[in-house]
Automatic annotation (TrEMBL):
The keyword Phosphoprotein does not apply. Belongs to the ROK (NagC/XylR) family. CDD domains: ASKHA_ATPase_ROK_BsXylR-like. Keywords: Carbohydrate metabolism, Xylose metabolism. This is ROK family transcriptional regulator. Transcriptional repressor of xylose-utilizing enzymes. Pfam families: ROK. The keyword Cell membrane does not apply.
């Protein structure tokens, strides 16, 4: 029989469907795959055999039976390959190795002071190179690298603009692909964080989710109907530059009164420097987020006031977003999520008083379940997704 292009395409789609079902539902029997996908049992068996041959699935002991013979269960081989995910923050870099289900094998976090594009990409290469010896042996090895960056990224993986890094037009994807010889995916860090929370964190059972990354800047990853909303040119989510005041502080983008000039870590530090201007305490005189958190924990009223102010500004911006998007869940992530104990009440109070009652009533607010790791995990999950899509194209 002549296999036509259509048949091949249908087979690829079915095989991917079977693989995806095993990935998300394992341990699972062939009969359950058939029931979930609507494919007949003979097709499922043939495709499962191919997936076992290519190391993506394996058989394990017998599962629960509903009466007859106990079925053989199938497992997804999470360790068939490994991804590297990196969250490139403005004052830190978090890099990790994960298996194909997002389990972290090794991670490394370093502080960053030098932001210049050449120096920082060198540091990024060095950090990734340092992880390579820790990648366990596997059939597919390193399947790809994903990077979340605080800026606008085009579809070629070039960073067009990252104001908080001072970068314009950095072809990061091609720099790293050339260096490491594997597929590289670059995306905005808030998009990566949203995908990380959706795939592995607080947003697993949620279809409409806003992930608000509050670090030195503020960005959002917008997931609508289970899909990341990228906008027409791929630049959606620049919520940090929502104009909240006509004549506010000058923002890195050139405008005044943007949300991130009031509610970001950067804004908090500017206000803290003014507040502790003549403090005798050395920690307080040169505040950073960690010293402010420790002051707040010790009951320092000034630190607590600064966090409450930040929380009120965060709540104001989030209220606007809730009114526009009517989300089910808002996840506050990145560094400011560490301050949840000190900003939380102010966020809720402002959100309650500023958002429309019908919108607010069914929207919940959570802090990142993945802690620091949402963007790095999301970046790894983008690399994993890319790997499976590329793999699908090569199937016969
Ligand atoms: Zn701005």
């Amino acid at each position: 029989m002549k296999i036509t292009g259509d048949h091949q395409l249908i087979k690829k789609i079915n095989k991917y469907l079977v693989l995806d079902t095993i990935r998300r539902q394992f341990p699972i029997s062939r009969a359950d795959i058939s029931a979930r996908t609507g494919l007949n049992k003979a097709t499922v068996s043939a495709l499962v055999n191919e997936l076992i041959e290519s190391s993506f699935a394996s058989e394990t002991g017998l599962g629960e039976s509903s009466g007859g013979r106990k079925p053989v269960m199938l497992l997804f081989n999470e360790r068939a390959g490994f991804a590297i995910g990196v969250d490139l923050g403005v004052n830190y870099m978090l890099a990790m190795i994960t298996d194909l289900s997002g389990a972290v094998v090794k991670k490394k976090r370093i502080d960053i002071a030098e932001l210049e594009a050449g120096a920082l990409t060198d540091k990024l290469k060095k950090t990734i190179r340092g992880l390579m010896p820790h990648v366990p042996a596997s059939p597919y090895g390193v399947i790809g690298i994903g990077i979340g960056v605080p800026g606008l990224v085009d579809d070629q993986g070039s960073v067009l603009s990252a104001p908080n890094l001072g970068w314009t037009d950095v072809p990061l994807q091609s720099i790293l692909a050339e260096e490491f010889g594997v597929d590289v995916v670059i995306d905005n860090e808030a998009n990566a964080g949203a995908l990380g929370e959706k795939e592995f964190g607080a947003g697993r059972d949620v279809s409409n989710l806003l992930y608000i990354s509050v670090g030195m800047g503020i960005g959002a990853g917008i997931i609508l109907n289970d899909t990341l909303y990228r906008g027409f040119s791929g630049f959606s989510g620049e919520v940090g530059h929502m104009a909240l005041a006509q004549d506010g502080p000058l923002c890195g983008c050139g405008n005044r009164g943007c949300w991130e000039t009031f509610a970001s870590e950067k804004a908090l530090l500017v206000n803290a420097r003014a507040a502790y201007d003549d403090a005798a305490d050395a920690d307080a005189a040169a505040p950073n987020l960690d010293t402010l958190l420790s002051l707040a924990r010790q009951g320092d009223p000034e630190a607590r006031r600064l966090f409450a102010d930040t929380g009120r500004w965060l709540g104001t911006g989030i209220a606007n977003l809730v009114n526009v998007f009517n989300p089910e869940l808002i996840v506050i992530g990145n560094r400011m999520s560490l301050a949840s104990a000190w900003i939380g009440e102010a966020v809720y109070e402002t959100l309650d008083s500023r958002s429309l009652a019908f919108h607010r009533s069914r929207a919940s607010v959570a802090y990142s379940q993945l802690g620091h790791s949402s963007a790095a995990l999301g970046a790894a999950s983008m690399a994993i997704q890319r790997f499976f899509s590329t793999m699908k194209a090569t199937w016969e």
